[in-house]
Amino acid sequence: MKTTLEDISPVKKKLLIEIDSKEVDKRLNHAYGEIRKSAKIPGFRPGKVPRKILETYFGNQVIDDVTRELISDSFPKAVDEVKTFPLGQPILEKEALKQGQGFNYSAIMEVRPEFEVKDHLGLDVEKEILSIGEEDVQKRLEEIREANGKMVPIEEERQIRDGDFVIVDYEGFEDGQPMEDVKSSNLLVKVGKNDFHPKFDEALIGLKKEDETEVDIDFEKDFYHAKLAGKRVNFKIKIADIKELVLPELNDEFASNLGADLKDLDSLKNELKNAITSQEEKRIDSEIKQRLLEKISEGINFELPEVLVEAEINFSFRRLNDNLERSGSSLEKAGISEAGLKKEFRPASEKRVKEMLILDRIAKQDQIDIDDDDLEEGYGKLAESMGQDIETVKKYYEARGQVDSLKEELMKEKTLNYLVDHANISEVARDALSQGEGSEQEDK
Question: Which of 85, 122, 221, 307 has CA atoms 20 to 30 A from the CA of 166?
Fold first, then answer.
């Protein structure tokens, strides 16, 4: 076998493989020999069918089978010989397989770009000072209180006001004609939250139960709902009911009803403070790592393998699509086109792929790897977060073939920690950090 690697671009290669005629004849002879053993053709005894007759009956099948076999056996060896690794499925171009002739084929494939990362250690980076105040705890407490509130109809006959919860039926019209999928029954609207559009909420204020109204809304060109973007829509609205959220009293009884480990309101506040502290520590750690990675990325430019970018775009698309389906919606109902969404996802996907490749290059350059202890620690953290024992988590990942994916995530995190450990970190208040980032954006 002879192999040749040609450059098409920094991330696209063409691998040419030549297999000599002796190997081709050997494989074809073997294939026909196996068929002869079991072939049943009228006028011939089993095992005695002439080769020419076998070629007439089974020639196309044999050619296809041997071609696949030759490629399957030779391609991994060829890749190893030229020391390259294809990303995704290569595009094959092959000649017809013939007795007595060599077999040539080529594989066009994308590979990881070759580049060097310099000056990635000792970078100056700001880190937000962890600051958890009483107002943070109180805000989280109010969120829990609202989540445990009860929605009850308003008994008194009064007008809708800001903060009310209103049940509405509506339908949208364009040029007097009803719009497809722009209608709803029993939609819950919190007036003033502006989840749909501010003018829609404004139109409800002052109305009473059973009232009907109309409102014209000129939607922005970049409105999130594609069916409404840039259009003037007339909405016919009917008020089905007006409700208010009755909140439970914040006391020891409320706290103890939330969990067996909570004895009183103070223990709930302590639990919330610990939870908020843990979340903020993770956020701050994630943000300093992202700032470091962005600093490193700014000075490095290379071509991105399209197969990786497409995979990242498709991952984001599937995640959003799945979330919509779980909520009982869909891309079509939301007026979102698949092509438009994927186009919108591309810049962020390209950024993530670039950062992933840079982290991978740093790990190789600086000889960072994942050993058994790292993997065991990773399983331990997963087990703790999932509320499972380590052995159960191990079996879960092994059964689904996800151990390599876990190792990749652990490698990414270990490399980021390595960059943080070697950075010059200055701690600043959240306000100062935000102002600094704002100035950097303006400079750009």
Answer: 221
Does the domain at 2-110 match CATH 3.30.70.1050? Answer given as yes
Q: How many CB atoms lie within 10 A of CB 206?
A: 11
- Residue 2, beta-bridge partner list: 18
CA distance between the termini of the chain:
54
Quickly state the pLDDT bin for 438 (edges 50, 70, 90): very low
Tell me if 132 sits within 8 A of 280, measured CB to CB: yes
Please write the tens of the pLDDT for every residue from 267-314: 999 999 999 999 999 999 999 999 999 999 998 999 999 999 999 999
Cβ burial, residue 391 (10 Å; 0-12/13-18/19+): exposed
The string over 80-89, giving b where at least 16 C-beta atoms fall within 10 Å of a residue's C-beta and e elsewhere, is eeeeeebeee
Is 150-246 CATH 3.30.300.30? no
> Model's pTM, two decimal places?
0.77
Fold for domain 263-443?
Trigger factor, domain 2 (1.10.3120)
Phi, psi of 350 (to 5 degrees): -65, -40
Domain borders along the chain are 2-110, 150-246, 263-443
